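Summary for the lay section of the report: proteins are chains of building blocks that fold into shapes. Here we show the chain for Programmed cell death protein 5 and then a coded description of the shape we predicted for it.
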Amino acid sequence: MSDPELEALRQQRLAQLQSQYKGNNVDNKQAMEERMQQMEDMRNSILTQVLDQSARARLNTLCLGKPEKGKMVEEMLVNMAQRGQIAGKLGEKELISLLESVNQQTQRKTTVKFDRRRAALDSDDDMEL
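The coded shape description reads as follows.
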């Protein structure tokens, strides 16, 4: 075979492999998106079974304000429901008490340090009007 023919075959094979890869990649993405959608639907159905309407509204409000904490509480509720630790629907008051216990567990103690030396150097007395 001559060089141009060999190069043409290589380009053809490369194009074929790239199209196969792109096709598989698209299929994998679609399958993954479908799996994620199914998991989200399952989570929503479990939360609907476990929480009454007012508690669900409060959880949605929490997810809007603090998404990471909302997802953590949702995961906790789903896990509790799957283990059978929740009997019946939780009301808003039960959810609030659960949120308070989560807050106590995850609350970080913050300290404020005040550097008096720097404040002493930044005195307003030095300014003349």
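Put simply, here is one thing we learned. The chain has a mean pLDDT of 83.
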